[in-house]
Amino acid sequence: MTQEDAQYIRSKVMAHNKWFEECIPMIASENLMSPLAKEMLISDFADRYAEGLPGKRYYQGNIYVDEVELKAIELAKKVFDADFADVRPISGTVANMAVLFAFAQPGDTITTCALAQGAHISTCEFGAFGQRSVNSVNYPFNEHDMNLDVDGTIKLLKEVRPKVAQFGLSVFLFPPPLKELQDTFNEIGCLVWEDCAHVLGLIAGKQFHDPLREGVNIVSSSTHKTFPGPNHGLLLGQNLTEEQEKQLQKAVFPGVTSSHHLHAMAALAVTLAEMDVFAKDYAAQTCKNARALGQALYERGVPVLCPDLGFTRSHAIAVDVSQFGGGKDCAKALEDANIICNKNMLPRDTSSVRPSGLRLGAQEMTRLGMKESDMVEVADLISRVVVKKEDPAKVKEDVKTFKRQFTSIQYCFNAGEPAYGYHKLVE
């Protein structure tokens, strides 16, 4: 690589930073780390390697790595009131793979949601479940409530008697009915697993549901969605036997990871410390903002799902834009206006390429200090593009003006630092 190549790459990254300074970020699976957490990513931890568990490494040079990892485990157990935590998975999907390797053999039956119901791609035939060759059976789904059909799910669980009952969505509007299913879990004796990637920060803030108190044995998650940490993974456990904990640890390493990205693990530790202090206020405001955005869009003629249920109890809302050109075209027009969201399948859709919906998340806007009144302004800007079909270039200028009010990260130990520049990275 020449110096010109390196400069080209740097210039594109800096251009991206500048662009996002002027955008409204609404991808439901993204967030902003604090400056203190981001500093961990450029520490010497980024250049080092560790395999195994603290105190039982296969490399020397991990004295301080062990101390940080033990603190991360301690904080994870505290924040989520968990008996078990493993902070080594390097992503949410890798955490899912670890659960599969630990507790499912090829041919075993696992019950889960379908992709069109909002499930994550790792649960599909072409994802981690298919790669593990498990028999995946989908729950019946109530499209009106955007949640499981409880009676149908109980019937299905009793019929197929899965080895593992798996839950969790990427369009996660309402908590799953775990309490209503707990007697059935006990009756069939299955392991209960929930992928909480999208709502981990809301769970930390006690604003969504409490899976480990509602019958879930294992929580898998990424750590960069409503939980505003690095691109990394996390496993939590409750009521696992000692042997099951060892199975899960062994599945993480050497099963699906080698070194576990020590810089990201340290950033996760910092974020856990921050969320121990700020999670409740942050999660509560995120949920308020999501509902306010849903209401404001609905009032402007945008069909938001589940209006009679308050649109959502999470950070996300689902919007049916089929009458306005569909999810693909609307998402592109909004991007042209510096409003960043994504197309998304709704339950009746059959194509993930041209779905009828959009998924909008409030968590990153909340992280930048926006409140309910700001969601009304955001809804106006979206409506101008989607409903009124205004020129996105014109709306873009108003988006830039609006965004100038929100330039620093909130709900962290370094409140007031710039959100996108991180000048220490470019000095």
Write up what this structure looks like.
The protein is of the alpha/beta class and 427 residues long. The protein folds into 2 domains: 37-272, 3-Layer(aba) Sandwich (Aspartate Aminotransferase, domain 2), CATH 3.40.640.10; 278-425, Aspartate Aminotransferase, domain 1 (Alpha-Beta Complex). It contains 14 helices and 16 strands. The chain has helices at 3-21, 35-41, 63-80, 92-103, 128-131, 150-160, 178-188, 200-204, 242-256, 262-299, 326-336, 363-367, 372-386, 392-403; strands spanning 24-25, 52-53, 56-57, 84-86, 109-112, 135-138, 141-142, 147-148, 164-167, 191-195, 218-222, 233-237, 316-320, 339-340, 342-344, 357-361. The strands form 5 sheets. A 7-stranded mixed beta sheet has the order 4-12-11-10-9-5-6, sandwiched between helices. A 3-stranded antiparallel beta sheet has the order 13-16-15. Strand 9 (164-167), helix 7 and strand 10 form a beta-alpha-beta unit. Helix 4 packs across helix 9, helix 6 runs parallel beside helix 7 and helix 10 (262-299) crosses helix 13 (372-386). The protein is globular and about 60 Å long.
Tags for this model:
427 residues; disordered C terminus; alpha/beta; Aspartate Aminotransferase, domain 2; 2 domains; Aspartate Aminotransferase, domain 1; globular; three-stranded antiparallel β-sheet; 16 strands
